[in-house]
Design brief:
The protein has about 110 residues and is an alpha+beta fold. The chain has a domain at about 30-105: Thiol Ester Dehydrase, Chain A (Roll), CATH 3.10.129.10. About 20% of the residues lie in helices and about 30% in strands. It is built from three helices and four strands, in the order H-H-H-E-E-E-E. Strands 1-4-3-2 form a four-stranded antiparallel β-sheet, with helices on one face. A hairpin with a 4-residue loop joins strand 3 (about 85-90) and strand 4 (about 95-105). It is elongated, with a radius of gyration of 16 Å. GO terms for molecular function: (3S)-3-hydroxyacyl-CoA dehydrogenase (NAD+) activity; 17-beta-hydroxysteroid dehydrogenase (NAD+) activity; 3-hydroxyacyl-CoA dehydratase activity. This is Enoyl-CoA hydratase 2. Keywords: Lyase. Pfam families: MaoC_dehydratas (PF01575).
């Protein structure tokens, strides 16, 4: 039911809401929107590395590696290298990487 909220924001992709469409595409059930996964990763970086200062973000890039099902637990691992934050998101239940990339910062937080 939560996946139906995607249609309110203009996402009419049936992979996110229709079990039959998801099955035809090879998934056991509807999948989470990739940008939702990316949003969770960037939120974790802002909270952890940027200490809540979202204006520190200069650029975001990522590569989607695998699907995520709604309700799965996402774990974001991150490593600071200069002004870049390398990150990887894993699904805890399947122990699989689903997203990786880099967030470039404008500056470092004064509290790191």
């Amino acid at each position: 039911m939560k996946a139906l909220l995607y249609s309110l924001s203009g996402d009419h992709n049936p992979l996110h809401a229709d079990p039959m469409a998801a099955e035809i595409a090879g998934f056991s059930r509807p999948i989470l929107h990739g940008l939702c996964t990316l949003g969770f990763a960037v939120r974790a970086i802002i909270k952890t590395i940027c200490r809540g200062e979202k204006d520190m973000i200069k650029n975001i890039s990522g590569r989607f590696l695998l699907h995520v099902y709604p309700g799965e637990t996402l774990i974001t691992e991150m490593w600071l290298e200069g002004l870049g934050v390398l990150y990887q998101v894993k699904v805890k239940e399947r122990n699989k990487a689903v997203l990786s990339g880099i967030v470039t910062l404008n500056r470092l937080s004064t509290s790191i």
